Amino acid sequence: MSFSLPPLWQCPKCGERFVTANMWHSCGKFTIEDLFARTEPHVIGLFRRFAEMVRSCGPVTMIPQKSRVVFQVRVRFAGCYPRKSHLLCGLALPRVDDDPRFFKIEKYARHFIGHSFRVYSEADLDENVQRWIRESYEVGAQKHLSR
After folding, report:
1. Does residue 49 fall inside a structural domain?
2. Residue 77: which domain range?
3. Which residues lie across from 92 on neighbouring strands?
C-alpha cells in the first residue's frame, strides 16, 4: 500500500510552504548575512557546519527569518539562533533525549519534541549531534505519518 502526503500550502505573499493553509508566519525576507552581522566571526562558521550536517540528511529548504534560520523538509525540524559568541540550536526529535547538553526540552506533539542546545565550537558538532539531526530530519519529513 502506498501512502502519499498532501501537498504543502504556499503563502501567496512570500512563497513559504506549510503543511496547513493560512498558517501564521511573518512574510519578511531576511538574509544569512543580516542574521550574523553582529556575531563573532567564528559563529557563521559554526552555522555553516551545522547546515552542512543538516543537508547531509537529504533535500532541505533553509529559511532565514528575523531572529533565526530554520530547516524544513515538510515541516520545520531544525533551527539556529545566532548569538554574539555561539549558536542556540533546536531540533525536533520523536522522543525525549536526556543528554545533558539539552538545556530545554518542550513537547509540542507526541512525535515532535523540541530539544535546545548550545554550540560554542566545532567540537560541539559531533557524531551525537549528527545522529540527532538525522532523527530530526525524519520528523521534518513526517515519516511517522507513513507508518
Report:
1. yes
2. 29-146
3. 114
Rounded CA separation 40/84 (Å)? 6
Beta bridge partners of 113: 93, 107
Q: How far apart are CA 2 and CA 80, in angstroms?
A: 35
Looking at the 3D structure of the chain, how many domains does it have?
A: 1
The one-letter amino acid at 56: S
Task: Give the tens place of pLDDT for each residue, 109-145.
Answer: 888 999 999 999 999 999 999 999 999 999 998 886 7
Per-residue pLDDT at 97:
95
Calculated CA dihedral for residues 77, 67, 60, 85, nearest 10 degrees: -90
